[in-house]
Amino acid sequence: MSLGRVYSRALVGVEAPLVTVETHISNGLPGLAVVGLPETAVRESRERVRSAILNVNLEFPARRITVNLAPAELPKVGGRYDLAIALSILAASGQLPDDRLGQYEFLGELALGGELRGVEGVLASAIQARDSGRQLVVPAANQSEAGLVRGCRAGYANVINDILRLLSEGQSLPVCVPPPDFAEQMGTENPCDLASIRGQRRPKRALQLAAAGGHNLLLKGPPGTGKTLLASALPGILPRLGEEAALQVAALRSVANQPLKLPEFYLPPFRTPHHSASPASLVGGGARALPGEVSLAHHGVLFLDELPEFTGRALEVLREPLEARAITVSRASHRIRYPASFQLVAAMNPCPCGYHGDPSGRCRCTQPRIDAYQSKISGPLLDRIDLVVNVPRLSAIELMGDPAPGPDSASIQQAVVDCRARQLQRAGRLNATLSGPRLERDCRLDKSGKRLLREAMDKLRLSARGYHRVLKLARTIADCENSDTIDAQHLLEALSYR
Length: 498
Hints:
The chain is an alpha/beta fold. The protein has helices at 40-43, 45-55, 82-92, 122-132, 143-147, 160-169, 182-185, 201-213, 227-232, 243-255, 279-283, 293-296, 312-316, 319-324, 367-374, 379-382, 396-400, 409-427, 436-442, 447-460, 464-480, 488-496; strands at residues 3-9, 18-26, 31-35, 64-70, 104-106, 109-110, 116-117, 135-139, 154-157, 217-220, 270-271, 284-285, 290-291, 301-304, 326-330, 335-339, 343-348, 387-390. The strands form six sheets. The protein has a five-stranded parallel beta sheet with strand order 11-14-17-10-18. A four-stranded mixed beta sheet has the order 1-2-4-3, with helices on one face. The longest helix is centred in the last third of the chain and has 19 residues, at 409-427. The radius of gyration is 28 Å and the shape is elongated.
């Protein structure tokens, strides 16, 4: 036989489309050509594959070898195709039976001695291999990652000889499973409990509302009042992720070639980029169009501390993903769409010195400096934030006295879970994502509520987006109070956060 066909998976964003590796061996000058839009690392696989085959005591055909990676229009990057190319050459040259090759998908980079090296993006491949009905074969370095996908038949190998025995003799491979202590590693401890934060009743209330409805939040106040501490407590009151959401988050980390933190597998991500972050690092980019912070915060929180210190360009690129909940990274040859459904939580001082409006009177900033500082946050970006909350300085009595009793993060988390359950049962989504007819139906106001909101729109000069965000927040407040209707007090509280 002179034709071999093996299945593998590409990596395009968080998608892993099927790639068919076809090898044809014909008479002619000896050589190996790889076609199908391969980039440099894929073209270099020729030397890795040749050495690996020879070093496991098999014959590398001294004939003309053509390897096609189909579909041809799909960009191929990395060394993930090495194993599939080697197996297709062995099948085309008759050294490997091809009757069982169609039952498997192969991923792995080859060392010169025939060992398998790990590749990135295995989790995305395992998710799609699960739906294909074929068994996935990965390097041993990726076996824990592939084992996280429930329902995926995946095995792992250390060297190419293990796979040859699988296909020639029917010897099974070890099954990919999560680490044995995976269940025990599922941590629930939160480093910051809301009960340990003194005072700040209104900011705590805002945190609960933001968590309950998936709303964006801005904390404003002088230095040292606990803005960062409050934000760090938010993950502790967010519900744990479901199976599919956790896999999506883990797949994004895998695509970005970041380590998979098993203790945090079911916990919502909490990303805290430094204010020196570039626009590309926030939304994604680079030569390989990797996901940015907005995508790594998918199903979680993106926390921007010292918000005005970010460059204007970096802040403005957040506007589109905040609305679309996805981001498209374009390159000359392809476009990649990453999910980016995240909550934006930000913190800022009211002026350059930080003490504008503080009772201590320490601020010496002129009004033009204050205006210039606050204008770094554009109106369109502020319009996308549902809750703006002042975090005042605590008095000495509040700091040094006995802490006032209050609910801890665990009890607030349960309230958030119950509130989200009401939303999902009613609309199938969180209030922050309501739009169109669903928004009008679920956030309907009575006559007094419409009159109140009309007056508030004229006084606060709310945009259409601001009007809708007030309605969504009022709906969340009503859900927290187990109310089927939006009453005047719910609307007034929502307006107070504008």
